[in-house]
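Quick illustration for those who missed Monday's session on complexes.
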Amino acid sequence: MRLTGISDTYVLNNGVEIPCVAFGTYKAAEGDNVEILKRAIACGYRYFDTASFYGTETYLGQAVKASGIPREEFFITTKMWKDEMGYEAAKEAFAKSLERLGTDYLDLYLIHWPQPSPDCREWRTIDAETWRALEELYEAGKVRAIGLSNFLPHHVENLLKNCRVRPMVNQIEFHPGHTQETVVAYCKERGILVQAWSPIGRGRVLEDELIVELAAKYSVSPAQVCLRYALQRGVVPLPKSSSEERMRQNQDLFSFELTEEDMYRIGAMPPAGWSGEHPERERVRVKR
Ligand code: A2P
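Prediction with adenosine-2'-5'-diphosphate bound:
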């Protein structure tokens, strides 16, 4: 499929359309939070990704309301945090998120992490119970699509064994130097759309020699190379930025195309820019 702009859509496995580029709101809470989100709306972003953990739901709700643009023109995703998992807790978390966002439905609701902690032995039951709550919210029409975040194939398998509703997306860390090919291939084979958090590797990948070389070759920025790479892999990037110039730059991804050779080179570059986060390990503190 040829994408021409950030409002072009993919169709999820339940028929719902989802824009091909989102605006990430993690850390938009630092500083002039609502202003950043208003700026992003003014720049044309309509798909916003938040989470109860980010502390940005309220600001996003305020920015959407202030825009005067009808709610249906936005695509809003949020996620429940690790301490909100379980059947009852998930339903409560959902209600609280709706309240903070000032909306009566969500476009997409995700389980943020598959395990409340790396050493949690009961994750199979906890995930299944949490998913049952999401299925009910979906069947009641309170959310248009439901999915996962940071789930590895064995976590997804556990849900697929007993679910009534199949997950529609899995949002993972994905950028040049950390593309989690096992997860991507697994999801693609099962019709689960992959989304990329930290699509530019929190800036750490932008100085990589290959990314810099390709940016010069295509006369774009290193960030645009990373975002275009995700698009060409059929992965939805969730870039975030506080600056209007970079917000606009991060939408300007449709006037160039990486060659097959360059796609392979990026896919095979040395590991770079991993956040240090893995659901089954204690967080690794990595230097920038
Ligand atoms: P800023 O808000 O100053 O633009 P990631 O999404 O991979 O975690 O990276 C987010 C970081 O990347 C943000 O700190 C943001 O900083 C920066 N960033 C976003 N877009 C660009 C860009 N086009 N060029 C350089 N840095 C960017």
